[in-house]
Specification:
The protein is an alpha+beta fold and about 100 residues long. The protein has one domain: 2-Layer Sandwich (GMP Synthetase, Chain A, domain 3), CATH 3.30.300.90. The protein is about 40% helix and about 25% strand. It contains four helices and three strands; from the N terminus they run H-E-H-E-H-E-H. A three-stranded mixed β-sheet has the order 1-2-3. The longest helix is centred in the first third of the chain and has 18 residues. The chain is globular, with a radius of gyration of 13 Å. The protein starts with a helix and ends with a helix.
């Protein structure tokens, strides 16, 4: 369990640091994929919400690309699957 929390914490920290995020939530959903081929290899399934001013003026796809780029070292290893929701601080505040 501590390993899962460490991995989630490292992902959150990296997103905050690399994207200057004002809010990050990462949820480990690996337990929902028990028996899945990616889970067998040790890669986790995560859902992330990232709020960053770096997303201003970007399309949803471009903002999501920034997230995947920030986690490029983890993708295919620690992270098998990642679902991402990106928001600007303005959109986050108005929700």
């Amino acid at each position: 369990m501590a390993t899962e929390l460490d991995r989630r914490g490292r992902i959150e920290h990296k997103l905050q640091e690399r994207l200057e995020a004002t809010h990050v939530e990462v949820i480990d959903e690996s337990h929902l994929h028990a028996g899945h081929a990616g889970a067998a290899g040790g890669g986790g399934h995560f859902r992330a919400l990232v709020v960053s001013p770096r997303f201003e003026g970007l399309s949803m796809l471009a903002a999501q690309r920034l997230v995947y780029e920030a986690l490029s070292e983890e993708m295919g290893g620690e992270i098998h699957a990642l679902s991402v929701r990106t928001l600007t601080p303005e959109r986050w505040g108005s929700r």
